[in-house]
Amino acid sequence: MDFSNSFGVLRRRKGLTSVLLLLTLAGAAAVAVLLPWTYKASATETLLNSEQSSAALGGGNPYLSFDAAMVEMANVLTLKLTDPQNTLALEQQGDTASFQAAVLAENAQTEEPFIQISVSGSSKAAVAQTLQGVSASLNNLLTQLQTGVPVKSRASLDTIAEDSAPARSTSAKLKPLVGVLGVGLALTFLIPQAVDGAATRRRRSRAVAPSLDDQPMSHDARQGTEPDQFRPDHAAATRSENFQRQWADHQIEENFPAPHASPTRQGGRGQAYPEYGVSGPDGNRYSETEWRR
Hints:
Blueprint: H1 3-12, H2 14-34, E1 38-48, H3 51-57, H4 68-81, H5 84-92, E2 98-103, E3 114-121, H6 124-145, E4 156-169, H7 171-208, H8 219-223, H9 234-255, E5 278-279, E6 285-286
Antiparallel strand pairs: 1-3, 1-4, 2-3, 5-6
Helix pairs in contact: 1-2, 2-7, 4-6
């Protein structure tokens, strides 16, 4: 691409370029002002084995007694936490920010039962309140699942990482802003090129093939008659007819020579062919008589 030519087009179409650039900047400013900031907070909970299982598997240390059953239990807790019924209950108690919960262990044979809770929203206070409410709801769900189980055999939850102070997320606003600027600048560059190219093609077509309206009108067109080249040439037709008639007479004379002639009704003369024995009007015998006009 010839960038010098492209920037020359932008200079020639500076009015259109300026309008498109102003619209791009206005759109970016609207996104920056109208799109709210997003705040995020998170916490990571781990499911610990019971005292009885910890003594048997890890010498009494719950962090050394993780097993596949703990990962399965963490998945059950996550499903109950994100259930629509539980989510509605959280909203009714004021936890209105959006949240997600996921088990970080995908392989039950080698990974630990870590549950990560992520909360996001446009209000810093709502994000902080929702994080506390979701963590409390997770503990309540674990207690409900272990109803009737002896205390020594119950699992528990422990917070191993928490970012409870909501932080502003710049990416949530920066990505739409960059998108609007990118699309707007691309259109600001491409639209003047297209307009200028279309105008150039129109000028070239007018120069190569002028319109019929610009051509002078002929005398026949002004008079409403046919042009001379379309009129029938009667003199030429007559000459052609005479030539064909003379050529036919010449062929007859060559093929049937006449020793003598006889008068015709129109005062002409006939050609006699006595070898055929046909009687003519003068008493002689002819084979055929061709009368000339």
